[in-house]
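Case study.
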Amino acid sequence: MSTTSAIRGEIVTAANEQASAGVDRVGVATLLEHGRTLSAPVLRSAVDRLASPMDTVAAYHFGWIDAAGNPADGDGGKAVRPALALLSAEAAGAPAEVGIPGAVAVELVHNFSLLHDDLMDGDEQRRHRDTVWKVHGPALAILVGDALFALANEVLLEQGTVEAGRATRRLTRASRKLIDGQAQDISFEHRERVAVEECLQMEGNKTGALLACAASIGAVLGGASEADADALEEYGYHLGLSFQAIDDLLGIWGDPAATGKQTWSDLRQRKKSLPVVAALAAGGPASERLAALLAADAKAADSSETGDIGGFDEEEFATRAALIEEAGGREWTSGEARRQYATAIAALDKMDMPGEVRRKLVGLADFVVVRER
Amino acid sequence: MSTTSAIRGEIVTAANEQASAGVDRVGVATLLEHGRTLSAPVLRSAVDRLASPMDTVAAYHFGWIDAAGNPADGDGGKAVRPALALLSAEAAGAPAEVGIPGAVAVELVHNFSLLHDDLMDGDEQRRHRDTVWKVHGPALAILVGDALFALANEVLLEQGTVEAGRATRRLTRASRKLIDGQAQDISFEHRERVAVEECLQMEGNKTGALLACAASIGAVLGGASEADADALEEYGYHLGLSFQAIDDLLGIWGDPAATGKQTWSDLRQRKKSLPVVAALAAGGPASERLAALLAADAKAADSSETGDIGGFDEEEFATRAALIEEAGGREWTSGEARRQYATAIAALDKMDMPGEVRRKLVGLADFVVVRER
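After joint prediction, the assembly is written out as follows.
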């Protein structure tokens, strides 16, 4: 079994080759902090508009209060999306502040999807805290998700400008893709075979579309042309796919101490992630043995009371992981992460932007792709 | 126990007094049919954009196919909202067709809320069919609801006009009120006392806000002034409150053969509807006896295994209904239905519109308020 740092190492090398002009880690920390500082007050005042008890539930979800209602300084996520939104305003030659309503709207849509997905997937933990449905029940998880989604459009549209209308249209398109992606992800769980292309499309919808929107929404609010906004969307979309490919690698071979998940996490959940579908599509003896094993696992899970294969020991997961690697699923996914990263960076050349902003966008991409887990 | 036709009779009389110039029932049927015919193809093509299996699930919800996937001609609702949206375009001097994207967007938001509310409330039947969560599971009920909500904004915004941006902003505001109303409704179930004003506000959010949007969105798309759009919103909002007051009366005293619900339906669900909160607020011996009985019911429900009071016989519900009536809750609610209806019709005078359109809006209001159940 390989370690998380080895997986990161492969990509760090790739990233350094591709983006030697990137800003350093300290620079990225400043960028993220800047995005958080500018967008947090607007996000908070938007959430404050929610009727009770939804305002409290949302505040718990964002980590501003604990389950008992006391002020907290919980983990609200890395805030990559707000940083991207503000940078994209600067890419269009506008002040970062112009991107703030976009940054807030994207964060609201992101958190709407987390609230609903956690409920649908039955996930009990998020950002090291119990999920909202677990603490406040399914009805409030649905309602607060709905409310954050509506609030996202509200925050944008109350700008009342033509640009805000364009931005809302792009955000709506991204939201629909997010929903499509979750529907695909759920339907894949019940299918024996998923094509690599289908998996990439699902991950593009689930992860790529909203990062694409984050990376362009500030520019749209700043009056960028459709072509420039499209270039930034392309950067964000492929950045999302690169991130997801690495996430899929870590979901199988990641070190639990670093990822905070169980060993073989995605194998336990029988996810049709990229390494798995690539290995199944590859053909050859290892691919065929893997297919036979996974088909038997599906049968066992269907007939078990809990609907999972929790009784497996480490050895059995290790066998499956080894077959995925032998069939080439791991190598293909690493390569795909590098290819998507390269496509993301190349998209930046389609737009004329200040060199300093371009360097920051590359630095943020490096952070997203090689980030600490 | 009074009959449904007696309840309708009270309001029919009121309606006829207020709106002797209203169009007749045949005219209303034509209006509703016209709204359905113009909006249905656009609604269908919007729903067709959803990724599989969400398109199928939505088609089932709208009654276009049955649970087995065969074409059906199910009840898709009365389509009052589309008719209102098209009429409101005509009120602003635009062709009815200008209101179509608004009609479709409002129907999409309405059905998004039905999908989520049925799941939250555990309702198993809607329009004489099993609800979506019952047939396709909770995850798809959440996802398809989310998708319809996103689609509503998409349909409006792809018009790409300033008017579409204004319409989307109003729709978003109405959607947030809808969500607030559902949150209030759920929280009221756990409270011993709810003020009449709180109940009216909740019903205004749950029923009034989207009817207000339906009644104005066509006008907004047709370029109406903010003042004219506000007048039409006021008409729709109070029409919604009048409808809801009658619905609350029917929820207690309605004839099951006519309403399609159980006898004492709202009492069985221990709803804090208008007659109940008005009776509790009235004071006096009947009000106090009612309060004591309902408090004991709440205790019994909390300690029962099913969480309800299903073991009650007809006599026990009849006692509660009689106390509500004795305390004046029924009379107050009837009066409130008439007052809200009058406010709705009066709002039409704040806007200069063709006489024929005004007559149709009054006719539609009569239909909504005195409608067959």
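Observations recorded in class. Residues 4-370 of chain A form a domain with the Farnesyl Diphosphate Synthase fold (CATH 1.10.600.10). Chain A has 17 helices and two strands. We will return to this complex in the next lecture.
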